[in-house]
Amino acid sequence: MYRHFPLLVEWSDGCRSAILFVLEEETDPKRFSIHRLVHYCLDLAELFDTERLVPVVIFLHPGSYPEQLRLGSENRDYLHFSYLSTALFATPARQYLNSPNIVARLRLPCMDYAPEDKLAIYAATTRGLMELEPDPERRSKYADFIDIYTALDDNELKRYQQDYAEENLAMTALSVRMREEGFQKGIHQGMQQGMQ
Asked: What are phi and psi for residue 33, nearest 5 degrees?
């Protein structure tokens, strides 16, 4: 899966020009295209009328990928492009188990850990979500992300429910609450449509 996110950073004191970070997440390094990234960066630079742009690629799985692109002839380069990269799959999850950074905590399932630590990683991620994200709708959205990237099988889920009862209870309560709110919204919308 290929996703990219532009992030414009502006300093409140105005002493520096804004800078645009282009974050790309690539789950399959074989699908990564440096040419596509160059196009995207150039389009954003033109759209935001800036030359201050930092491309960052986050790789979720190992593989080979080009780190730079040079266009030109044997005499001269006319375009030289490179980007910052991070291999999330090689980042030790243990270093971030208790991180106060919600992004780090939500990314734990994508980091490097021993197979026997999978349930502890899942628990640390869900605990981080409950501690660090106050918005219930975002919690629900991120809970889906955690489930997708951790991919617990039925046996692991049963063990998790037994070994991490507190975390499981919090996530179950969140899931029930979001379903009830969705049900209530559905009833409300249905009543409004019926009255119209």
From this structure: -125, 115
